[in-house]
UniProtKB/TrEMBL annotation:
Residues 31-67 form the DUF1232 domain. This is YkvA family protein. It is found in: Endomembrane system. It comes from Altererythrobacter arenosus. Keywords: Membrane, Transmembrane, Transmembrane helix. It is a multi-pass membrane protein. Its main location: membrane. Pfam families: DUF1232 (PF06803). InterPro entries: DUF1232. The chain crosses the membrane at residues 29-46, 52-76, 97-120.
Length: 124
């Protein structure tokens, strides 16, 4: 059980480190874009597959998210990742931000609305 808790804590730290990496210009562009997508998805309260769907609902949390994190970690140089992890460790003790949560939810709503508008059939 202790190993599982340590793994979960390291995963949480790496998600925060990816968020930091996505905003740092020293990170390669492809890694920044993917890090932004993975961290944004991980921090978002909205899931690609809702958790209420048996088995599939947990698939993105258990398989897809760690796979995305692993891929981004492979794209970021190790020395930069050490810096990002150290910064993430120092930030984990800070209080949570309600404004950040609202911003993430707002971004998801705007993205969904834009996709709906784009694909919605129009007459004439």
């Amino acid at each position: 059980m202790d190993r599982l808790k340590a793994w979960a804590k390291a995963l949480k730290r790496d998600i925060l480190a990816l968020w930091i990496a996505a905003r740092d210009r020293r990170t390669p562009l492809a890694a920044r874009l993917l890090a932004l997508a993975v961290a944004g998805y991980a921090l978002s309260p909205i899931d690609l597959i809702p958790d209420v769907i048996p088995v599939l609902g947990l698939l993105d949390d258990v398989i897809l998210l760690p796979l995305g994190i692993w891929l981004v970690l492979r794209m970021i140089p190790p020395d930069l990742m050490r810096d990002y992890r150290a910064k993430a460790d120092s930030l984990q003790d800070r209080p949570r931000s309600l404004a950040g949560t609202i911003a993430v939810v707002g971004i998801w709503i705007i993205a969904i609305a834009a996709l709906a508008w784009w694909f919605w059939p129009r007459s004439g």
